[in-house]
Amino acid sequence: MDLALVWYNPFEAGRDRARLNAMLRSVAAKGVKVSAHPDVIDKMGTKDVLWQTRQMPWGTDLRRYGSSDEMRAELPELLKRGPRVLKQMRGQSGDGVWRVMKDASQQLLAVRHAKRGCSEQIMHLYEFLALCSPYFVQGGAMIDQPFPDRLHEGMIRCYMVRNQVAGFGEQLINALYPAPAGQPESEASEPGPRLYFPADRADFQGLKRLLEGDWIAQMCKSLAIQPDDLPVLWDADFIRGQKTSSGQDTYVLCEINISSVYPFPPSALEPLVREAVNRCIARA
Question: Which of 60, 152, 190, 261 has its CA 20 to 30 A from that of 171?
Fold first, then answer.
C-alpha cells in the first residue's frame, strides 16, 4: 500500500516529482512495479499524450504551448475560429482546464475554469496569461483543443485492463457543460455523477472495437510503448466528434488516467485480477 501511495503522488500532487520518479524507476529496476513502469506512466499519464497522438483518428486541431509567449502568439488567431479548451499537463478534477472564447464585445475573453463551482469570467488576454503562468514552470506546457460541439451529449470513459476494454463510465453533465441555449453561462449545470456500465453496453461497441482493434496499437507505436507494458488498469476519456458522412460517430480523446483509476465498473474487477495474477506468474 505504501508503494501505491507514492506511485500516486508524482502525477496528482506535483511536488518533488523528479525525486519520486527517480525512486520509482529504482524500484522498477529491481522488478517491483505497481500497475506499470514509471516511464510508461510518464508517456501516457499527462495531457502530452494528446499531442503525441494528435495524428491518430482520435486527434483534433491541437496546439502545444511551451510558454506564455507561445500562447500569446497563437491563441488570439485560433479564437477567431471558435472556443478552445486549454489544459495544463498534469492535474485532476478539472484543475488547470479552461474553456476560452471571445466575449460578446469580441474585445475580451470569456473564460471558465473546469473545477467544480467555477463560473465564467470576463478578462483581457494578459490576465488569462497570468492565470496560466504557473503551468509553464519546470518545463510545463499547455495543450489547446477546439471546444467540442457535442460536449452536451456527455463524456465516455473507457476502462482498460492492459489492451482490452473492461467497462465504461458515462458522465452526462460534465465539466464545462454548456448552459441551455439562450441562457447566460451562470445557468450551466454543475457536473453530475459518473455512471458505470459493463463492457458489453450496446451503443458503445463501436468505440470498443476501435480501441481494441486499432487505436491502442497505434497509440503504443506513437508513444514507443510495448503492448505488454501497458498498465494493468487505465482509462481513456472521449467526447463524441463530428459524425461521418454515413452518420457514424467519431470520438475525440480528452485525456488518459493512470495514476489513480478508482472507482471503476464492477465488470473490470475479474479481468483486472486475472491480469495482475498473470503478470506475477510471468515475473516469477
Answer: 60
Q: What is the pLDDT of residues 206-246, one digit of tens each?
A: 999 999 999 999 999 999 999 999 999 999 999 999 999 99
Strand partners, 256: 236
The bridge status of strand 155-161 relative to strand 251-257 is unpaired
Contact 164, 271 (CB under 8 A): yes
47, 87 contact by CB (below 8 A): yes
Name the burial class of residue 85, with classes exposed (0-12), middle (13-18) and buried (19+) by CB atoms within 10 angstroms of its CB: buried
Collapse the DSSP code of 177 into the 3-class scheme (helix H, G, I; strand E, B; otherwise coil) and give the result: coil
**Sign of the torsion angle spanned by Cα atoms 22, 92, 157, 141:** negative
Residue 16 banded pLDDT, cuts 50, 70, 90: low
* Dist. CA 214–CA 91, nearest whole Å: 28
Grid cell locating 5: 501511495
Q: How many CB atoms lie within 10 A of CB 103?
A: 14
The count of C-alpha atoms lying within 13 angstroms of the C-alpha of 198, restricted to the half-sphere facing its C-beta, is 5
For residue 61, which phi and psi values (nearest 5 degrees)?
Answer: -75, 85
Sign of CA dihedral 66, 72, 73, 74: positive
What are the E-state strand segments in the chain?
Answer: 63-65, 84-88, 97-102, 109-113, 121-123, 142-146, 155-161, 164-171, 195-197, 234-240, 251-257
Pair type for strands 234-240 and 155-161 = antiparallel
C-alpha cell at 183: 441562457
pLDDT at 36: 83
